[in-house]
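Training component of the fellowship. As part of building independent skills, the fellow (R.M.) carried out the full modelling exercise for a liganded target. The chosen ligand was S-adenosylmethionine. The inputs are recorded below so that the supervisory panel can assess the work.
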Amino acid sequence: MSGNDRIRRQRRRTRQPHGGGERIRAKGGRTSGSRQWLERHLNDPYVAAAQREGYRARAAFKLLELDDKFGFLRRGGRVLDLGAAPGSWCQVARERVGGKGVVIGLDLLEVEPLAGATLIQGDVYDPEMPQRLREALGGAADVVLSDMAPNTTGHKRTDRLRVEAVAEAALDLAESVLAPGGAFVAKLYQTGGSDAVTDRLKHGFDRVRHMKPPASRGESPEVYVVATGFRPAASEDETPDPDTVR
Ligand SMILES: C[S@@+](CC[C@H](N)C(=O)[O-])C[C@H]1O[C@@H](n2cnc3c(N)ncnc32)[C@H](O)[C@@H]1O
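Fellow's submitted model of the complex:
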């Protein structure tokens, strides 16, 4: 078996890639910033492991580590992956839900086709998107993942607010497609305090936990929130009339 599109057998635990061996140095002719980036990339054990295992990005290991810890990807499950390009989280979801599961990926960018996944190019803010995704899922989702990352500005507070805004858009969408008991996983930036997404999740889910998976670079402010046990809000039709309830 080889190539990006193969679906591997479900792994029991993620093997942690480790460094070792000689450090590779980038050749000259580059600015120091791009040389540093290239050296870090060439020496990153997760990049090597992703290449070896046929994943489209090292980010695959973040999802593997999150799922090893919290176990939200179940065989036969329906998964919606928001911010899917280039597709490594969809690859992991495919492996873990198996042939009877459903994986739908959405991104602003075009994603190279992936066997067993439906990939939609579009914007999470598009008001037509919830309906489109519900149709593609063919039923309520068991898991909504969001690794969406808007373009960064380098200004910490602005970047944190942008990441939080896109995670809130993911949560709005999740609330309209998730099955009761479902899970929501999203990228946030560490704040050291509370954030609007976590506050909302605490009201709508049984358990809310945060994790910075080992595959997430130490210098990155990203952290993932994992909420399980979705409790849909009662719709207005189901809310008892206060005049008739004693
Ligand atoms: C870090 S990448 C995701 C990597 C992916 N999880 C993987 O493993 O291959 C973040 C993605 O979020 C997407 N994104 C950002 N804003 C978005 C939006 N409003 N709607 C849909 N996708 C968005 C970007 O286009 C980008 O491809």
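The panel noted the following from the submitted structure. Residues 56-57, 59-60, 83-89, 106-109, 123-125, 147-150, 166 surround S-adenosylmethionine (CB under 6 Å). DSSP finds seven helices and seven strands in the chain.
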